[in-house]
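Homework-ish question, so no full write-ups if that breaks the rules, but can someone show me the predicted structure for this set?
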Amino acid sequence: MGGDDAPAIVIRGANQAAGRHAAPRFLFFGDQDAVRPLLAQAPALAGRADIVHAETVIAGDAKPGWALRRGRRSSMGLAIQAVKEGRADAVVSAGNTGALMAMAKYSLGMLPGISRPAIAAILPSRRGAIVCLDLGANIECDANNLVDFAVMGALFAQTVLGRADPTVGLLTAGPFAQEDRDVVQDAARVLARADRQIAFHGFIEGHDIMAGTVDVVVSDGFTGNVALKMAEGSLRLYAGWLRESLSTSWRGRFGYGLARGALRAMRTRIDPRRYNGAMLLGLNGTVVKSHGGIDSFGFAKALDVAIEMHSGNVNHRIIDALDRLHESSQPQREPAPIA
Amino acid sequence: MGGDDAPAIVIRGANQAAGRHAAPRFLFFGDQDAVRPLLAQAPALAGRADIVHAETVIAGDAKPGWALRRGRRSSMGLAIQAVKEGRADAVVSAGNTGALMAMAKYSLGMLPGISRPAIAAILPSRRGAIVCLDLGANIECDANNLVDFAVMGALFAQTVLGRADPTVGLLTAGPFAQEDRDVVQDAARVLARADRQIAFHGFIEGHDIMAGTVDVVVSDGFTGNVALKMAEGSLRLYAGWLRESLSTSWRGRFGYGLARGALRAMRTRIDPRRYNGAMLLGLNGTVVKSHGGIDSFGFAKALDVAIEMHSGNVNHRIIDALDRLHESSQPQREPAPIA
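A: Not a homework solution, just the prediction itself:
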């Protein structure tokens, strides 16, 4: 029921994803009177979908605390509960992010050894898709949080992006800056020692993200959120200027007509809907957040992410990797404790 | 002597700026044997330039502390000294940013009432040029620092961008985020009360920056630095993809040929050299930092910024505005102290 055009885009998106993936079954949590007629128009879901009726919905502006206290029987609350009880393998929502994170954390709990969950997303770069985290779950982070994000991001890049030995970079302020944050320095020290588990590249700056300098970009949630949205805004500015420039002369318009196919291919490549589906990593269960303003094409992409995360066994692999990391870094940790 | 192609681009840049501005005289600090022959090839500088010989140069990777202790007689140190002693009205450098900030802060001191200097730059947006600060001088900021940045940014937007009543936004992590940083919340409270001095828009998110939602974007230096460089990286990715898309088919190449003028106009518009010249605001003197990898066209833009800052009397106007702000916010400040 979450997002701007729910439940229509959710069911149409599931219909698209069902056409791509033969195995999954779909549970729709929400107002059955709204969902049922939409489901009747989704041929790929025939025989593979059930409705779980929910009386209430978490509003887009509800506070996480309110959702925790009152949202148990909402569509979001029931969907998370289904994952907790093993009736579903993953939950995908286009609803309130803060509520989703809070309820999922409370109901599902954290993976053992993970200090905080993180929101991760796949972004385009000059050298292919990359993973960025945290994008807003944790406004303040300590060094151990950043180390956990590095491990989770690396495992995610292996599993979902298929990178054999993903490189990890810590996002920091570059030459302009007089010094780096202590937490970033401390995290770098731990990661440099864990070089058998993590291919730690070192510090990176903002321009390295989309240059594809590393496969996994690690930052606190405040910085990551601003960077992600700055990229969106920059691309929108650039695309708008391109349109304007091409429409101001007949040569531009004619050239645009000829190059339309090429320009459309580029738009497809940079289409934010293709990168929809942020993962709530670190939870004891697969939880994927779709952008709220997305259409069915984008929602289907978020479902793809959930399906790949589950079939790639990302969570179990994170637990194993953290165990190995903590074993190897334990002896050195004592003489130089991390703040 | 600072930057990748110094001193050649510095003198050629000054030659271009001198052609645009009749009044300023130029002092070149550096190796006189390198500077003199270059000056002989700069017709617009004839009779308007002097050389101050410096034996040493601050290296690009020198630490600010080292520069403070050992850099007094370097080209950068002597140039800052000239501003302090009134022999120059402004200093422009393409050298080491940390060293420039540290030495300028130590020699020139701060404007009365300003807690910390900030690096500010002009960026393009959908609705015209905007000012962003801090871009890396202050990795950690408290609420009062952010309020000072808001005042300095607004005055700068008035003076250099010519905005009558510039709006100010505080950069924060949006809906994804569970809560905002305390310092950002506290700064917002002070700014909301100062509405007769500052047109405070409220919180903005990353995508608002280049949408031009506000005239002045305020953030800590860590976040601002990452956001600025993320924008650079995004635009480079977009431009690279555009080139690739247009070169893969004959229609694309032919269309590109026709639309070349329009595409060139756009490249000009988004050219980062046009936005060169970051201001070190809050210092008791006009200090402008040029990008180190810039050419003479870009260096001339940094000189334009310094000339406009000085002729617009930005520093005096910042002092006046801060006085008024502190007078008006004093009574309310007592019951709700700022952390």
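Now go work out the reasoning yourself. Hint: Chain B touches chain A through 77 residues (CB under 8 Å).
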